[in-house]
Design a protein that fits this description.
Layout: E1 11-17, H1 25-37, E2 40-45, E3 59-62, E4 68-71, E5 75-79, H2 90-95, E6 100-101, E7 110-116, H3 122-135, E8 140-149, E9 159-162, H4 166-172, H5 185-195, E10 201-208, H6 217-231, E11 233-234, H7 240-256, H8 259-303, H9 307-311, H10 315-324, H11 343-348
Parallel strand pairs: 1-7, 1-8, 8-10
Antiparallel strand pairs: 2-5, 3-4, 5-7, 6-11, 9-10
Helix pairs in contact: 1-6, 3-5, 6-7, 8-10
Length: about 375
Amino acid sequence: MTDASPGYPRVLIAAFQGWSDAGDATSEVLQHLGALVDAEVLHVIGSEGYVDYQVHRPKISLDDAGDRVLEWPDTRLLGTVRRPGAEDDVEAESAAETVRRIDGGRVTELFLLSGVEPARDWQSFADEIVELVDVWAIDNVIILGSMYSDAPHSRPVVTTITSEDAARREATGATRSTYEGPAGIATVVDMALTEAGIPPVSLWAQVPHYVHSTPSPKVTLALLDKLEELLDIVIPRGELLDQATDWESNINRIAAADEDMSRYIRGLEETRDEALAAETTGDAIAAEFEKFLEDGSRRNAAQEPGGAEAAGVHPGQAEAGQADSDPTAPTAPSQDPADGADPAAASETGETDPSSAPGDGDTPGGAGPTTP
């Protein structure tokens, strides 16, 4: 282990294939990041005792020498930690497409944890992850998840950020999860880290359930967008933008040839648009009402002896503020559904229906925007 770079926190991004990886969205995020930063394997949590090999079978391949090699479904910690004495090729770094900080510097304290959801001994598995976070002096943990829901493919991807820690919520704009129901390994790891005093942030995205048989690059892009915001970094997208465009175009083409599917998607779009309109209208009215109350406070202060000067407002300005503040005035929507759609609000509009899960019980299909 090496010492962390001064001034830059160590960040771990974790994702698990299976129940919390709808559309392969989270595993694709880790693969994309790992390729960009040329991450190396730092530690392996062996699959023996955790994984059901009849579900996740080991793979056989030939190495460069032609020998047969078994690859087990282990959980791997990868990292970009610089080794003491390692020579930096500045010219190669500047030319390479890699993850960078906002100031242009290369991100060197990024860890990735990738594996499959275990079949047994989840608490022991979570304890091993907690130990890794402690041994490698990791400061922040982000757990990724994606779930199938009644989300139209033609609208911006809805993402949800949650945390059990008040400070994390304040820093990231996350909310506290109110989900109740079946949980996956991501939730178990989240709670284990929180109990160990290393509360993570969970980032989840919705995947259209009617395209569950293919990867969803548009959802992968949405997760990368949020990671950029959370970590103040720049992540090259590579071919993902073109792949997301092709993905949406292909679904449109298939739907155009199937009237039932087109009608169903239009219904999802209308429900999503209505939910967003109701939410943004409510937020706008609330904001105007708060402004009205603030103006009223300033007017009251101005009416008291010395109140105008104390409040920093001329009495005439206070009255002008009253005239300008109309809580019923229409306000243009300013909130992208991918940038803070309220899961509870969406659920109340009937946007998703847990009973409509199309899956085989292996994924949180139709679970809606609430996150495990």
